[in-house]
Amino acid sequence: MSLTETQVIYLEEKANLIRQSIIEMLLEAKSGHSAGPLDMSDIFSALYFHILRHKADEPTWSERDRLVLSNGHICPVLYATMAHSGYFPVSELKTLRKFGSRLQGHPHREFLPMLENSSGPLGSGLSQAVGMAIADRMDNGKVNKKFIYCLLGDGELDEGQNWEAFMLGAKEKLGNLIAIVDRNNIQIDGFTDDIMPISPLFDKFKSFNWHVQEIDGHNMCSIETAIETAKAVSDKPSIIIAHTVPGRGVSYMEGRYEWHGTPPGISNVEGAPDKAKQGEVALEDLRTLHGRITSEHK
Amino acid sequence: MNLNPKIFDKDVEQVPIRKGFGEGLVLAAEKNKNVVGLCADLTESTMMHLFKNKFPERFVEIGVAEQNLASVASGMSAMGKIPFISSYAMFSPGRNWEQIRTTICYNDRKVIIAGSHAGVSVGPDGGTHQAVEDIAITRVIPNITIISPCDAIEAKKATLACLDVKTPVYLRLAREKTPVITTDETPFIVGKAQIFYEANKALLKKERIDVGIIATGSLVFKAIMVARNLEKKGIAANVLNLSTIKPLDTEAILNLAKEAGAIVTVEEHQIAGGMGSAVAEFLAGSFPVPIEFIGVQNKFGQSGTPDELIEHYGMGETHIMKAVERVVGRK
Questions:
Q1: Per-residue model confidence as pLDDT tens digits over B268-306
Q2: A66, A136, B190, B217: least CB-packed within 10 angstroms?
Q3: Which residues of A touch B32 (CB under 8 A)?
Q4: SS (H, E, C) chain A
């Protein structure tokens, strides 16, 4: 089952709205991460507006799919997507990182109980997702009534705990578990190849006995097809390596690791407009796109 | 208190505290179908095999991966399970402290962390396996309960009681055989400390006791022996079994401090940050009295027999006795 052109345009427009919200949130917060949230907006749009079984008006619905965000620092994309899905008012997004806000700098269930997990310290989300998938198997056997999704960063794979979880997931044959890695090739200190080479990822995951796919993480049809393929794999967990462009959609941020942990508007970065203009230019870039993703509409 | 009537006999029965955990876990699993057990390749040593044998479908072998152990349990808790995880205290909560802090406590997912082989009495394995820092590193975490049972029977009751505790729990267990102090009839309530030895004030012709000894875990027995021997020296000492270290039973500690005017704390743990520190933090702010601390003094453990090590690190009966004399002299 692949997406119709109307569905693709709908999801791309949602992704574009999410990106605009991310920029607006970060401008207001004056701190936070830009590149990862922007590059994961297409996947979040596909998940929340097409793939996930969830109910915004009943966040604790027991039969919902679970989405575990392991790299908590990209939470602006999670918050923006949840708001646009109806979990809470879009106007609340501007409270990000402010005192008393439900939208903590890194996700915290105590403040926003509708989250599946608190995160920030890297490398422990996949373990939690594995635990959820094991518990679901205990209750429902091998019939996949719900799926457990885990979103990871690529830099985060430096953390050894991930590999403990990869081994356990394969040992337990968790066909109800689908992990997606944001392969944007950057981390805070630089490019992943310079900081800690993790390639070849495909071969690594395959040797850990996971079902592995590689996709363009900005192509709605690829995202949807890969997840549907992963759902059909019943005897092992699946992982999708989503190749993304960090900072996607904002011209001066694309491909630059400097924007990993920097919001627009507070510092002059090489290749970017003056800091006073960064917000305006970013929003102009996004509004001009109007949800058009080149890989879909050429 | 319905304590073991044979407690002062030379042949008092001795059972490892961790065995009480193993038996208690089976009872908890029989009582609640959501109980699951996870272990990091130490199933028999932590006595989780009793549970595994009876409920194999509710057991998960994690392998030697304590960080994964903690976070997988968090995920299972999120799905409605009541996970008990076991390993040696040095590895859990030692190795996986941040996972316990973030994915269990901060995340508000109830998991029961059973840390066996706490203290130097682990013996021949040596210092790498002797957790004497575990109370310090867990009690600084918000949203956790810490229970340190004094014998196997109390450990069994504590394990079962974990079902009704709202927060994550650290259950501190010891490896070696420990004299059985309590009986099935001894009351046990999480968060309640109890006087396990009351000085015979009439015999000593005293209106008040001279010292309060607050002990936890495997050394409660020695504290009781000391209190009894002190009567021969004319010193009246009560022993408070502080089995729940967090939250502190401040009422029981305050009452003891008010009556005795001097406190000795006894634990198989570093003095820095341990149970004694918790008691001192409370009393310093509410009713300051002289305190002496029995525990490990800024040292790592080593190989030896449990008795040799307890003596070497200053936690024997003579050390407790001397600490009592010192603190009484400071009043």
A1: 999 999 999 999 999 999 999 999 999 999 999 999 999
A2: B190
A3: none
A4: CCCCHHHHHHHHHHHHHHHHHHHHHHHHHCCCCCHHHHHCHHHHHHHHHHHCCCCCCCCCCCCCCEEEECCHHHHHHHHHHHHHHCCCCHHHHHHCCCCCCCCCCCCCCCCCCCCCCCCCCCCCHHHHHHHHHHHHHHHHCCCCCCCEEEEEECHHHHCCHHHHHHHHHHHCCCCCEEEEEEECCEECCEEHHHHCCCCCHHHHHHHCCCEEEEEECCCHHHHHHHHHHHHHCCCCCEEEEEECCCCCCCCCCCCCHHHCCCCCCCCCCCCCCCHHHHHHHHHHHHHHHCCCCHHHHC
Q: Which of B30, B44, B57, B66 is catalytic?
A: B66
Residue B63 to residue A135, Cβ atoms within 8 A: no
Q: What is the mean pLDDT of residues A158-168?
A: 98
Q: Residue A160 region, left (φ>0) first, then alpha (ψ -120 to 50), else beta?
A: alpha
Residue A128: closest C-alpha in chain B:
B75
Contacts of A146 in chain B (CB under 8 A): none
pLDDT, one tens digit per residue, over A179-209 is 999 999 999 999 999 999 999 999 999 999 9
Comparing CB atoms, the residue among A108, A109, A132 nearest residue B75 is: A132
CA distance B212 to B238: 5
ipTM of the complex: 0.96
The SS3 call for residue B42 is coil
Give pLDDT tens digits for B50-60.
Answer: 999 999 999 99
Distance CA B90, CA B112 (A): 16
Q: Which of B65, B77, B108 sits opposite A164 (nearest CB)?
A: B65
**From residue A147, how far is each of B71, B104, B213 by CA, in Å?**
18, 22, 54
A284: Cβ–Cβ under 8 A, 6 or more apart, which residues? none
Is pLDDT above 50 for A298? no
For residue A285, the model assigns a pLDDT of: 87
In this prediction, residue A145 carries a pLDDT of 82
Provide residues of B within 8 Å CB-CB of chain A: 36, 57-58, 60, 62-63, 65, 67-68, 70-81, 83, 98-99, 102-103, 106-108
Alpha carbon distance B195, A73 (integer Å):
49
Are the Cβ atoms of B81 and A167 closer than 8 angstroms? no
Task: Give CA–CA dist A210/A237, Å, rounded.
Answer: 5
Contacts across the A-B interface (CB distance below 8 Å): 101
A129 and B75 in contact (C-beta within 8 Å)?
yes
- Alpha carbon distance B283, B252 (integer Å): 12
Closest CA to A72 of A37, A98, A99: A37
B98 catalytically annotated? no
CB contact under 8 A, A134 and B78: no
Q: CA of A135, closest CA in chain B: separation in Å?
A: 5
Mark yes or no for CB contact A138/B63 under 8 Å: no
Quick check: A51 and A227 in contact, CB under 8 A? yes
Answer whether A65's CB lies under 8 Å from A149's CB.
yes
Cβ–Cβ below 8 Å for B63 and A167: yes
